[in-house]
Queue: 3 jobs
Job 1
Amino acid sequence: MDKLVIHGGKKLSGDVTVSGSKNASLPVFVSTILAPAEHEFSNVPFLRDINTTIKVMEQLGATIQGNGNVVRIDTRGIDKHEATYELVKTMRASVLVLGPLLSRFGKARVSLPGGCAIGARPINLHLKGLAAMGADISLSHGYVEAKAKKLQGARINFDISTVGGTEHLLMAAATAKGETILENAAREPEIVDLANVLIKMGARIEGAGTDTIRITGVSELGPVTHRMMPDRIEAGTFMIAAAITGGDVKIHNMQLEHLDALVFKLQDAGVEIINKDNVVRVKGPKKINAVNIKTRPYPGFPTDMQAQFMALMCLADGASVISENIFENRFMHVSELMRFGADITTEGNAATVKGVKKLSGAPVMATDLRASASLILAGLASDNTTEVSRIYHLDRGYEFIEKKLAGLGADIKRVQE
Ligand code: EPU
């Protein structure tokens, strides 16, 4: 198993380029099930979760070719309608194949994903939506079995904002009969990227990016060529890397408008952010101000940036309160951050972080993807040596992170344990 060894205390500087978005690529790959054709995607990040999605698609009968960050998917040969536990348990987003398989074949059998380190993460709203569209759904032996001769358009009002649920029903509705209206839909930029792909395939979708999406089903969808949007969470992580080390970093291939909530909070913390000619320059402050955050669905502060922002607040001048409102167990980085000397207390979904003068390097363990990133950030800002183990979590979602950080002057190496 690999671990990262970081000798902290270096101010990061220079240029870094953000990769394509993991959370946009996963549903987009799955959406090709709907269109039996050859598709091409560029700016695809080289990640473990992308590999898992490729394996799921291959298991269904798709042919996939990769060349650097370009991936070609031929979905004409798909002849199976089952996603097994072995794959779904390693990446819960695989469950999104259910709706597209059901649309294409009238039946699908997909393993239930089960719990996750950051929360229970049920898929009840995905299933409720598919049932409203006429699917006959049953659960047996840990699998969801769904049948529908033809999915029918429906009006679906989500109880809570769900990114995966919105993506799932958007795909299912694209070739359903009649009109589907998704109300209280999630508005994340990844949903807009997925809608753009479906529209290029020939789908009729209006309102993606707002809380009401209207989809008029079409009888068939065709091939698509698409460049994936940049990964906003990777970009945000580099912004905090610059901020926490008091560095000066220029970030390329990012869409700053996707990170408004983070930008406002970083500015309140004293970080300077300059957006010029599509390059975002981030300068860390001498003194970090304490700032409160509450995670919310987009355009609120992203839960996927909470752990990294907490690392920054560990070194703030004063106390901040960080409230996690999306997942019920997303504070596992707290006890690891305390191993660096951070002063954090939690009560329910709120963590009070009292800034300390310095963090000191420590051996720590990654518990989930974004938690791993927060430990690296703390390590970069610490004196002495930090060892982050269990970094397989990190490899799910950050492309070449240690190489990118080393390119900015960080002393960081991947070694085998
Ligand atoms: N929820 C339900 N029922 C459902 C669906 C969701 O109760 O049927 C709950 C969840 O348990 C959670 C909340 O609704 O408490 C929001 O979950 P959502 O469905 O929005 O999350 P997701 O689609 O499973 C995606 C990202 C996550 C990101 C969340 C929130 C992908 C592959 N994953 O998950 O990304 O945290 O949206 O923005 O897009 C990550 O990249 O590290 C990551 C965890």
Note: The CA atoms of residues 106 and 351 lie 47 Å apart.
Job 2
Amino acid sequence: MMTEFDRPHIRPRRNRKSAGIRAMVQENTLTKNDLIMPLFLAGKNGAKEAIKSMPGQFRFGPDLLLKEVKELHALGINCVCLFPAVEDRKKDSKASEAMNAHGFYPKAINMIKNELPEMQVMTDIALDPYSSDGHDGLVDRKTGRILNDETLDILAEMAIIQARAGADILGPSDMMDGRVGVIRQALDAEGFYETSVMSYTAKYASAFYGPFRDALESAPKKGDKKTYQMNPANVKEALLEAELDTEEGADMLMVKPGLPYLDVISALSDESLLPIAAYNVSGEYAMIKAAAANGWIDGEKAMMEMLLSFKRAGADMILSYFSKEAASIL
Ligand code: PBG
């Protein structure tokens, strides 16, 4: 039997005693406004190809992509992020298709902005979906090195093509040095002052991108991405990248992946005055889907808990393949 003296007089459980009180003292909230839905675009109308390692996700042809975007809009999603699934025969070592102003990717951006101008369209700027080498930068044929500055010229050209197509936010995802500055300069030189840049600021060399590389068949043919993507052991380096992206003119900063890097999201949101995005990547999606399919986890609850964790860590926005599912619950 406890004495009166032993009894706790401070009881945090009082703030958890009812749904009403729990709601009042809740510190963080997930809303539809936080969600950005990544979508995979295929070249041919009518296409809807299931991605095996991402159950519930598809490569949509332009017509069906538009239909999907309209559904997302009706659910209250403000922003989609498009990735091109380029046919193998169109890939080459120079990523030429990335610079095709009349390609299916800029056309689809343009179509969405014409049909549904309120929807914010974010794009991807990197060579890997277009490159026969599967790298984000040009590969030096002799040494196998990933060429930084030679790649920047292509990124700048992609930025102009995408901005001209009507993109609202450009997403350089390649981790070359100086890309944000080069892209900002190119945009401003062409008068695209209002086109935003969300930099993939702290993008780690991660095993969690596997299903995405299945979706785009974009895995590196040789080697890995460790000479440009960050070492998972580092966090100070993320702050350096944030400082550089900010000086170079980024409007928003991103951390990727999300779940294994909540501390990095937290560090960036403490240090930076810019809005922070978390990318809840393909492998994080696949893990929950697989465990739920096996009956090992409540997939819906785990999804909502995971999405909320990004808000708690300090993210303002979340790119997630769960966006549609979560929006239909919220
Ligand atoms: C590459 C890119 C990757 C993703 C987005 N852009 C993966 C990679 O570096 O190979 C991954 C997204 C995901 O896993 O959901 N530019």
Note: The domain at 29-329 is CATH 3.20.20.70 (TIM Barrel).
Job 3
Amino acid sequence: MTRTDVLVVEDEVEIAELIQFHLEREGMHGRLVHSGKLALDMVRRSKPDLVILDLMLPDLGGLDVCRRLKQAEGTRAIPIIMLTAKGEESDIVSGLELGADDYVTKPFSPKILMARIRNVMRRNKGESDDVDRSDRIVLLDGRLVIDPERHVVTVDREPLDLTLTEFGILQYLAARPGFVRTRDQIIAAVHGKSTVLSSRTVDVHITALRRKLGAAGDAIETVRGVGYRFGEGRTALADA
Ligand code: CA
């Protein structure tokens, strides 16, 4: 089996080397580049399995690198995890909307970064971003079931009375637990299922959805300044 090849785009050498150290320890191969332009050259020469991308780079910024990789046919499928500084929420939102898979805020723990990498790699193996919309989703140890074909959501086997929009939002978030979605991504995903949806109405729908989910409502987490995600479900329902 070939080792997972990770391209680390980071101009702070110490951080880049720290990441490389942990990648190698996990049995992965880490290539380092210190600028955005070099990153694009490097990807063109040899496609990595994943890119860890700092947003603040000396020449070509991380968001531009992300945009170029996600716009080009040949590199679109390469997963990207952004490295961001605190307070860069609007850049995180832009990056996610450009197609980045995830982000980690500095200062980060290498352990968390490695977990995110494994998570992204696992999800990109068999699943494309277009999760089959007719697949049943079973979460929270089987206590939450989303059945798109019958259009039914149950918590502890009790069916919930959801609107089309609430159902669409839940299905979209639950399709990829742990991954943050921005409000615009949510709007795009449920487009057509609802007449008018704006950033603010997304919040209103989420509030209603959480209430209807009852004990499972905590699983829909707010990521401040960025959006929402379906939590991994370890803590949700614990006290139910
Ligand atoms: Ca930097």
Note: The mean pLDDT is 89.
